[in-house]
Amino acid sequence: xxxxxxxxxxxxxxxxxxxxxxxxxxxxxxxxxxxxxxxxxxxxxxxxxxxxxxxxxxxxxxxxxxxxxxxxxxxxxxxxxxxxxxxxxxxxxxxxxxxxxxxxxxxxxxxxxxxxxxxxxxxxxxxxxxxxxxxxxxxxxxxxxxxxxxxxxxxxxxxxxxxxxxxxxxxxxxxxxxxxxxxxxxxxxxxxxxxxxxxxxxxxxxxxxxxxxxxxxxxxxxxxxxxxxxxxxxxxxxxxxxxxxxxxxxxxxxxxxxxxxxxxxxxxxxxxxxxxxxxxxxxxxxxxxxxxxxxxxxxxxxxxxxxxxxxxxxxxxxxxxxxxxxxxxxxxxxxxxxxxxxxxxxxxxxxxxxxxxxxxxxxxxxxxxxxxxxxxxxxxxxxxxxxxxxxxxxxxxxxxxxxxxxxxxxxxxxxxxxxxxxxxxxxxxxxxxxxxxxxxxxxxxxxxxxxxxxxxxxxxxxxxxxxxxxxxxxxxxxxxxxxxxxxxxxxxxxxxxxxxxxxxxxxxxxxxxxxxxxxxxxxxxxxxxxxxxxxxxxxxxxxxxxxxxxxxxxxxxxxxxxxxxxxxxxxxxxxxxxxxxxxxxxxxxxxxxxxxxxxxxxxxxxxxxxxxxxxxxxxxxxxxxxxxxxxxxxxxxxxxxxxxxxxxxxxxxxxxxxxxxxxxxxxxxxxxxxxxxxxxxxxxxxxxxxxxxxxxxxxxxxxxxxxxxxxxxxxxxxxxxxxxxxxxxxxxxxxxxxxxxxxxxxxxxxxxxxxxxxxxxxxxxxxxxxxxxxxxxxxxxxxxxxxxxxxxxxxxxxxxxxxxxxxxxxxxxxxxxxxxxxxxxxxxxxxxxxxxxxxxxxxxxxxxxxxxxxxxxxxxxxxxxxxxxxxxxxxxxxxxxxxxxxxxxxxxxxxxxxxxxxxxxxxxxxxxxxxxxxxxxxxxxxxxxxxxxxxxxxxxxxxxxxxxxxxxxxxxxxxxxxxxxxxxxxxxxxxxxxxxxxxxxxxxxxxxxxxxxxxxxxxxxxxx
Amino acid sequence: xxxxxxxxxxxxxxxxxxxxxxxxxxxxxxxxxxxxxxxxxxxxxxxxxxxxxxxxxxxxxxxxxxxxxxxxxxxxxxxxxxxxxxxxxxxxxxxxxxxxxxxxxxxxxxxxxxxxxxxxxxxxxxxxxxxxxxxxxxxxxxxxxx
Lengths: 1008, 146
Description:
The structure holds 2 protein chains of 2 kinds. Chain A is an alpha/beta fold.
């Protein structure tokens, strides 16, 4: 560690993982440089149409984050740049960054787009995967951050041939600089996070896929653009060769993944099965008549909600699934379309014609990135991903350098976001001494007091590209709004959420003296905070704002009724204007945040979270129900990477035990929780005695347990054990294992079947590790694995490959033909249908291992204490599946480990650290504002019936006991959550809810 | 003559049904454009006055939708809503208001399909009843003048 610690962090990359890491760090007291190689941040997620498994619109959930990064005072974007070298050591690095010339002065560019309009040179558009054209001066996509143009030098006529010069002529800001040069800059930072993502596998040159010869064979990213409403065909999927509407689409899985024959990528890319299912579902939603088929080897739907999505694709949408690798694709000699040839499960050769063939391309790390990593002293795996260990999942081989996202290993968005949090936490933890030394604080814009002023309403109507304007006559809505009472200003914008529109709005509000704002665009559920921030920046109270959802509740759902949709939009705007005119500025109470933390659960996740927070200087109370710390990990043997879990766990337990900032309460449980974010009071019972703990935040890491099977003779034959029990036997060198001649594993015991439909995620990998261990100890042991789909996702695929090489025999079974187990004369017989030889196989097993499900505790009491939801399976439900996997919707409560969903140790630790990072961001604020939208009492009207007291679940209303107002109700605004149940139940009309006042709602009804 | 298109004032709770309506949009599930949506924190916020006011202002139907019983973001708000409107609906029947004009449903934020389905059903049921006149201010006024 260097002597001088620098309080800033460099993040290489600009995708969703980098964005999350940057926000977590910048919010907790560190200055962040974000070094992105393209002209703007956003990464691959910005190109996606929807995100699985909820099919949220990708850009819609991402754009608020983009804007947040863009306007964050402690995040500096260094675009068109790549890191070349890291010198120095943890705490004080000199990072050499190569930055390409932009030829546009970012300080001057106002993002007006005049240059682009006049640019004569058309170039393939990378954002649309080359399926559309852009100009040589461009922004990658309309919501790009920063919204500054860039010249693509090799394609610019002025730069290459010294002709044209149009952009310079038309630029009103004098921002064009043809003399700009590439430069190398040096940044002094304390930690580095590598989050450069992946390259999509390029199927060019693979004859048998016909990708080079036919336009109708597309990669999955190209297809994503075809599906997207902002894509080259406005979301109408077409066969590219003749722009005809397709009737049959096929997806080929594992293109550039799990393939060491035609490429070098042995790993599974983890996400392709789900995105193929997502694409097939969306394509079917566009056209229910469409025939869709996914050709796969193993269906890997191992994440939260994935298996249900897979089942829905089959049962509800009628997507067909064919298990096989298609060996040849070629142009149809008899007409349009592509011919697929494959061998089906009955060993028959089948030929089928499809209009479009989608290649589900995998993730890889390109040679340049690998070489660069080697130069910087970062060890990589054989697959090119950054080498990490189970107990330090985001630490690279170089001290002070961390990794997150797909560069750490192939993964989906939520897992990337989790790792981003973990990387941010680790990057910050090393720099605690220099925290808040380089950050700047936002100068608060003084809020104008608009009380008593006549309403001056501004109405902004969004096109959302063609998303709204394709159906609704946006100009007509705008013009209609201009005639409504109190409306002083109206405007329409291409994308209301883009940063330039936001900046423009601030300006307009000030210039026109607007004091109420209506935005007609998308959903307030996603975009309220963004626009409210803009109001604050313009000196307006953020509650003087109302959103009208003319997209999700308008253009998207009334596609064939443009006139009615436009009328509805007008009337909804009229209602919003009527309401907003009655708005008053609201004030928020500021509360201190108690700086102590409660972590519930003393397993791997709970301990990792506690440790992560104590390193940041916070005091933690760790509550564990058991007599010892460790949770499920105590039953486990080795990790997939060969590390001893016993040793890793002992280190963790020890480091927690000696930490004087962590109070461990064993054999303890929660009896009650009162309060709210910043000020919780929890009652904890330890062996009969109770104590109260005050804490500002809580992390729920209560884990899960192994399902105890009732099937396959478990419990009646001592030869039948669960996966965890086998670990115990192996640890103890038990004779039952050591003397076994034949071992049989059965996968999916209690998972992926009616009653427990989810995939338990860890069992396939666990079985591989155990099977390999058996084979290692006793190479001539016969080891069979009976499985449905092998789900060794990511680089865990190497274990599956190794198991096959070592002679483990894999036999697939299906849900309707499960293996049969019987015991006769002390012998255990397992019968299963072998689909390859197509006859039953009878195995005499000395040891039968059941890869048993991970079963949540379904802790309803805990859920009620913190007002957090459980899903049908009994796992806790996070705030957002994709972008907030470690948060709860309840402020101040965070989530990690098995209580969220089954996951291996490295992912549990990453999530625990991510939860800690989120908690740190909150604790670092020291104070928190409560919502201004709370109930209040007009005591003149109150009849003292106390119905409000009876109705409120939060004990916010109370009756005044003494003084002149005795017998009247009063509201404690700090406890009020703003539901309004008391208001609608008040029989005297004495109660009201700020922001949803009776008069405001009635005004909306009047205006409807 | 143009086909009758009812106007349905729709109260959606922010956490469940409003989310479902958002999801229906994201998934492009189509339904007719007869609803005028008012977003409230909770179905428990809807007061009987709002429902009466909607009919008085000429609405042909009112639809209130919240979280599934037991799933309320505010723990019990939807139970209060359910009690209140079961009662109100019965009372309004005595004034001659057809029961089909007040509709309730419980739709979680994950149920985009259900939202579109229920929207279609509500609209078609209200449509079948024809224009609501009994309580509308304009109608009553015109009767008095005549």
